[in-house]
Fold:
Amino acid sequence: MTDQRIRGLLFEKIDDDLEKFIVRKFGSVNVQISKDKQDQLLIEFEDQVISDSLKNLYNVYPEFYAAHSRNQNTICKEFDHSFRYFFAYLNCVDHIFENARNFLMTNQLPSNYNLTLPHYGILVRLADQIGVLLMNGYPDGALRIWRSFYEFSMTTLLFLKAIDNDSIHKDFFDHFHRSKQKKAESHQKHHTALNFPSLDEELLNSIAKETRDLNTTHGTKFLDNDFGWCNRLLGSKKKVTLRDIEEYVGVNKFRPFYIWASGYTHPGFEAMTDFIEEDSQKIVLNKINRQTLNKTSFIDPMQLTVALFHEVNNVFIDIYSANSEKDINVRILKEVFVALLKSFDELPKE
Structure:
């Protein structure tokens, strides 16, 4: 049977280096020493190898940075027009967020508005992260972020459409207890293995009391799932899912792309399909740890991000924008969106 152990996995020619080390110590490799002496010698050798290697490893960063900068520069030049329009759209939404934030800070608005704006800001942040990953040649990473962007888009639209519903905002804040409860339970289950101290008994009692209080106020289904805070709004007799929110906000047409992006997020074969050679249908291993420069890989994360953001902006602007400015605000965003879509036709052929 073939030996499946790999020599030189991290240190090349380490056997030769060990032999040279012994020769320097004893003048020859043919030397008789005790088992304890062998172990001591091996530790001394490993200490020296690690010390020398760390000096080199810590000096690798400038080369790493330079290589990534060159790759980013190549990608940005190759997709110049698309990035130009993508980030133009992001500049618009960042401007919207900043102006809305400033208005909120200086005006007394209903508390319901306090949730829509943070959600919108997170969308701006996630969209920027998608752009940065694309600039660095990681469209699969951009899709993983887009999956989160999709979920936040659905909840942002929900809060916008239910902005006059007082209960949904309170329920959302109350539901945060589910996260505290789960983290506490998980900590208590694993703290010994992690060599962490147990949580304070007073804290655990406080969490347990709040759980009982919330179950009394909202019912036991409230803390049962991630979207229990939607129970009252959606009037569901079952556990509320993301699908229910999609249907409520009327933007479930993007679900096929959400399923597709989920394939990159979870450990399945979908995450490997970008590295398959069409002719042989084999996974090309040396593609996996390399940045991507592929037309089709860049298009979808860009257009899906802006298309979904546009759905959010149509509602956001309708609620937040002055009536006299609604049309022009929507029009400029649409112009940039259309320009982005047209830019894809100008990309170099593969």
